[in-house]
Amino acid sequence: MALPGVHRDRGELRIRESLEEICTDLADYIADLSEASVKERGVFAIALSGGSLIALMGKLCEAPYNKTVDWAKWYIFWTDERVVAKNHADSNYKLAKDGLLSKVPIVPSHVHSINDSLSAEEAADEYEFVIRQLVKSRMVSVSDISDCPKFDLILLGMDSDGHVASLFPNHSALDEKDRWVTFITDSPKPPPERITFTLPVINSASNVAVVVTGESKAEAVHLAIDDAEPECPSLSSRMVQPTKGKLVWFLDEPAASKLGSVQFCE
Ligand SMILES: O=C(O)[C@H](O)[C@@H](O)[C@H](O)[C@H](O)COP(=O)(O)O
């Protein structure tokens, strides 16, 4: 049985027994945020990650969501992207296009992926410029605290090393405070070159959801959510602390199996 749980200052935990339950809960959560954002702002600015997240979003391609979500109002971004051709197997754009964007009536001009003909540094600079233009036109809101873009929803996965987006443990990119989009050329997880949202952008979002499944992530989930342990590496998953936005963790039971005491509330 699914029980919503609130875990001190690390956001709301939604621990589900099965992937099926996570997929349904995630689709409802995204559809509800889309409806609220379109009602309030006329648009829904959402940033996707790579990995298993896209498959876990799959119910959005099915009834009722495929017919009830106002897809034409969606503006799509990526929290991180590998600097490879957009038709390359490693591309997060390709992953999302094949698994979601090609199956729902998204407006092609609303899809903002990186320019794959540029270097990592140039692609990061240009991606940030595009976002700055959309903030200027108010397609993407702006945080009244950080002057960063305030995405309506940022969706993150988390790897077993505890990284979200392409913000890897102990990497200098974790310390970037001024740029909205930065780049790395030494990713410990291939491919080496990537662009990524920085933590100030992630933490300026109205809503952040971290979607994590599988036993292999249990230790990283514990380190990301429970009270800090001595000698814990600098993990971006632990640094996801939205300034004013809401943080929700979607976890299956195996991924949540090493969590400390969780206060459940009705
Ligand atoms: O480009 C990437 O690699 C992703 O954006 C990355 O941050 C991903 O979300 C995690 O590695 C989790 O991936 P899995 O869900 O597939 O484990």
From TrEMBL:
This is 6-phosphogluconolactonase. It comes from Melia azedarach (Chinaberry tree).
